[in-house]
Amino acid sequence: MNTTVQLAWRLITNSAMHAGLWMCALTLSLNLAHAHDFKLGDLLIDHPYATPSLAGTRNGSVYFKGLRNRGGQADRLIAAKSAVAERVELHQMQMDGTIMRMREVPAIELPASTEVNLRHGGAGTHHLMLQGLKQPLKDGDRFDLELVFEKAGTRKVNVWVQTPRAGNASHTHPH
């Protein structure tokens, strides 16, 4: 091959290689943009989300796709706070006869090597209650939430407001 052809071949090969690397980097960054989890030591806080607030109410709820303690030592979620609400309470759902009720709890236990349920749903599940919202939560909004763990410390997470998928519809919580 003459030098002009070799030079052209190198240019094409290098351009294709750089384009391939650029596409890999773009794909990785898009995947990371969709990832919505946070770590604090052995704790994994997966996809914190809030449901849009109901018209005329000043309360909202925060859930998590998962809250995992991957360590060998138990921990506890002992508090949370956010600028979007006057206060954030830790709640647990419990059956009272045939009625599902929620009640405030002092902490949410995170046993070692366990995932705790903080999703919509039945008895025994937990969620965070936003009391005294400063403005309604609308689909697509995002806000910061600070979680305080007894042993792991404090971690700020970003909460996405989203309408639950069909089959996971939010339900009312009688007190």
Key descriptive features of the protein:
single chain; 175 residues; alpha+beta; 11-stranded mixed β-sheet; 1 helix
Describe the overall structure.
The protein contains 1 helix and 11 strands, in the order αβββββββββββ. The protein is an alpha+beta fold. The model is unreliable at 16-34 and 167-175 (pLDDT under 50). 21% of the residues are buried. Strands 1, 2, 3, 4, 5, 6, 7, 8, 9, 10 and 11 form an 11-stranded mixed β-sheet that branches. The chain is globular and about 85 Å long.
Briefly characterize the structure.
This protein is an alpha+beta fold and 175 residues long. Helix content is 18%, strand content 45%. The chain has one helix spanning 3-34, and strands at 37-40, 43-50, 59-69, 75-81, 85-96, 99-104, 108-110, 114-116, 126-133, 142-149, 153-161.
Overall 3D shape: globular
Question: Given the structure, what is the number of helices?
Answer: 1
Order of helices and strands: HEEEEEEEEEEE
Mean pLDDT: 81
User: What structural class should be given to the helix and strand makeup?
Assistant: alpha+beta
- Major beta sheet summary: 11 strands, mixed
Identify low-pLDDT runs.
16-34, 167-175
Q: How many beta strands in the DSSP annotation?
A: 11
- What is the percentage of strand-forming residues? over 45%
Residue share in helices?
A: 10-25%
**Rg calculated over all Cα atoms:** 23 Å
> CA-to-CA gap between the ends?
83 Å
